Amino acid sequence: MSTTPFRAAVVQAASDPAGGGASAAKAASLIAEAGAAGARLAVFPEAFIGGYPKGARFGAPIGLRFTEGREAYARYFAASVALDGPEIALVREAAGAAGMIVVIGVIERLGSTLYCTALIIDGERGTMAHHRKLMPTAAERLVWGFGDG
Questions:
Q1: In the chain, where does DSSP find H-type helix?
Q2: Contacts of 135 (CB under 8 A, 6+ apart)
Q3: Is the pTM above the cut of 0.70?
Q4: 134 burial type by CB count under 10 A (0-12 exposed, 13-18 middle, 19+ buried)
């Protein structure tokens, strides 16, 4: 067992409300900052890229749907990212430049389903793993699909 110390960064920041691209750019900047401070591992919050829909109702009371809710969901869907998209590529590049491993939560878009996904990105090897939240809790089930175990 190695006893070599290393520095880890716990990123306590909010995603950018301007969308997935803006949040990815913010993540890249924070990764560079952590790397410059000597961190070899950076851990970001759940749903950092794509945003956590705290307080959102998406106009969906039981048995009803409202136009403003559909529009709000369309905006949320548009802020999500594909795992092979430019937003994740930007985070991979930042991890590579900083020489670190990054764990980051994203709202993954696959077809017409959104998932709350955690990515583990190695700066040297790219995306090492992704894990979809197995059981979205409570109202999260209105917007996120079930993970695949």
A1: 20-36, 67-79, 86-98
A2: 146, 147
A3: yes
A4: exposed
Angstrom distances, CA of residue 2 to CA of 5, 6, 63, 122? 9, 11, 57, 19
Contact between 123 and 100 (Cβ < 8 Å): yes
- Contacts of 111-115 with C-beta under 8 Å, sequence gap 24+, read 113/145, 114/50, 114/76, 114/77, 114/80, 114/143, 114/144, 114/145, 115/144, 115/145, 115/147
What is the tens place of the pLDDT at every residue in 81-126?
999 999 999 999 999 999 999 999 999 999 999 999 999 999 889 8
Contact 30, 43 (CB under 8 A): no
Length of the chain (residues): 149
